[in-house]
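User: quick one, fold this
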Amino acid sequence: MKPDDLGVSKPLVFPLYQTAVFTLPDLDALDRIYDEGAPGYIYGRDAHPNAEVLAAEIARLESARWAVVCGSGMSAVTAAVLACVQSGDRILASNRLYGRTLTLLFQELSRFGVEASLVDVCDQDSVARTLERPTRLLIVETLSNPLLRVADVPALAQLCHRHGCRLLVDNTFATPELFRPLEHGADLVVESLTKLMAGHSDVTLGVVCGNDDLEQTLRQTVSIWGLMGGPFECWLAQRGLATLSLRCRTACANAAALADWLAEQPGVLRVVYPGRSEHPDHALTKRLLHGQFGNMLCFELDGGREAVNRFLRRAVGIPFSPSLGHTGTTVSHPATTSHRYVSPAERRRQGIGDGLLRLSVGFEPLEQITAALKVGLDLETSRTTPQEAEPSA
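Assistant:
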C-alpha cells in the first residue's frame, strides 16, 4: 500500500508531513509549480503543507486574505518589516514595544540605512505631528508589554493612511480571540504563535497576516532569509488553535478576578490590568476588546528585587518563566527579561521597576492560582479569595 492510499478512509487530524523536500515526476511539474503557481511543494524552507494549513486557519481567525508562517514571533516581525522598507526609509514605532523589537529597529536595521523613531502612540496629536515626515511603517502593540497600554488601532490606522504609511500591529497579547486589527484598519498583523495561539509552551512560531498586495513579497522574504517554521511546530500549533477560544475565555476570567484580589493584598503596591477602572486605557480596552481585558496583568511588590526573589522562591506553584500563554499561570520579571537590555532611564520612564512582576494567567482552577499566590506573598490562608472579593467597576 502506498503511504497516501487509505482507501475510502481519511485522517481526522491533518497529517504531519515531516519532510524537508518533496519529489516530482519531471521537469514540467517543477516548472508548473515555480512558474504557474500550480499546487505542489518542492523545498520545506519555501513552503510545506503543515505551514499552509496553519496559515489558512489563522487567516480565517484574523479576517485576513493571506497569512505567512514564520519560525518565531521575532522572525514574523522581521519579515513584515523587511517586506515594507528599504535603505533610506523611516519607521515609526511605539515607545512601549517589546525590547527585542526595539533592538531590531534601532540596532540591526540601522546598519542597513533604515531610520527608526519612537512615539507615544497613546498621544494621537504626537503621532500626527511625527507622521508629517515621510514614514513607511508605524509599529504598535495592541496591548503593550508589559504594562498593557492599549493602542487605538482604528484612530492610528486613519492617521497612517492619511500620510501614506502602513500600520503594523503586534497582536500577541490579545490574539484574534479578543481583537482583529485588520477589521479596524491595520495593514499587517503579526502574532507570536509561541504564546496564547499555540498555548502549550512547546512551539516556537510566528505569523504575518494581511489583506493587501504584500503576500508574495512576504513569502519571498521568508524563504530568502530562512524564516520559515518547521512542519512539526506547525502541526502542534494547529492543534493548539482548536482550544484557543476556550483557553482564552477562562484565562481572561481568572485574570480579572486575580487583579481585583491582588489589589487588596499587603505588600502589593499596585496592580496593572486594563479591566480595572484606574487603568488609563480602561474605557478604550472595553470598547475595542468588546468587554474582554486579556489574561495578562502586572503587580508591583514593595521591596524591589529582594521582594521579587522572596516571592519567586516561595511561589513554587507559579513557575518563573520569561514567556506567556501557557496552559498554567507563569510569572516573569520584565526588568531582567523582556526589558533587560533597555536602559534604566527608559525602564523608569515606562514604569518598569525592580519590584514589577508580570503574570501570565492560565486556565487552571482559580483557587489553585490563589493558593500559590498566597504562598508567594506569605499571606495567611484565611485571607479573602478572588471569588469573595468585590470586583472593581
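User: anything notable?
Assistant: The first strand starts at residue 66 and ends at 70.
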